Backbone:
């Protein structure tokens, strides 16, 4: 019986070899005649409670012109200017985070918990301020909507993200530092990291 099966398999294979060779010739012919193409598909799979909206990933915050008369003494502040981090596709998922400052646990069974950390060179005199380039005597303070100071490099206070779309608002404020106050254009680059737990 095994010999019969082997015979059937060999017979079937001998019939299929010409068909397979014919198909291979057609594929090679398609390459030659320009009828063949390739589509390269790529992407990434992420595991996050929300997606950062691309309009939030790269932002410019224009603080405008601040009169030096508003910044006479160290600690004097200019006008706070808001900026927003927008989130989309937020899932209904459990979230829990310990607040690094208070030790309190922020949690919810249906809402993710988000913390944001801002990373930038710190001012030499006031390390809680972002260092600017271009002038001296000025640093930038980042605060949340409750006017909580954001410590550079540390996670901010935990915040809930609503299902669907949500946003977090922050403020940048020019602050006078002890060094001699210069006049002119200044800038700073601040990176931020969004953490979901």
Residues:
């Amino acid at each position: 019986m095994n010999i019969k099966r082997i015979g059937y398999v060999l017979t079937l294979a001998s019939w299929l070899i010409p068909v397979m060779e014919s198909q291979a010739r057609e594929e090679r012919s398609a390459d030659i005649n320009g009828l063949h193409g390739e589509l390269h598909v790529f992407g990434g799979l992420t595991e996050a409670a929300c997606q950062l909206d691309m309009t939030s990933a790269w932002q410019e915050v224009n603080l405008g012109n601040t009169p030096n008369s508003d910044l006479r003494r160290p600690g004097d502040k200019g006008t706070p200017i808001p900026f927003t981090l927008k989130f989309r596709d937020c899932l209904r998922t459990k979230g829990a985070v310990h607040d690094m400052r208070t030790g309190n646990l922020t949690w919810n069974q249906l809402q993710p918990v988000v913390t944001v950390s801002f990373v930038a060179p710190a001012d030499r005199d006031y390390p809680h301020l972002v260092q600017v380039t271009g002038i001296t005597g000025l640093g930038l303070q980042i605060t949340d909507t409750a006017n909580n100071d954001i410590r550079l490099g540390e996670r901010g206070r935990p915040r809930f993200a609503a299902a669907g779309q949500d946003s977090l608002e922050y403020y940048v404020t020019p602050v006078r530092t002890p060094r001699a106050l210069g006049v002119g254009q200044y800038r700073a680059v601040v990176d931020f990291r969004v953490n979901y737990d």
Summary: The helical segments are 2-33, 54-57.
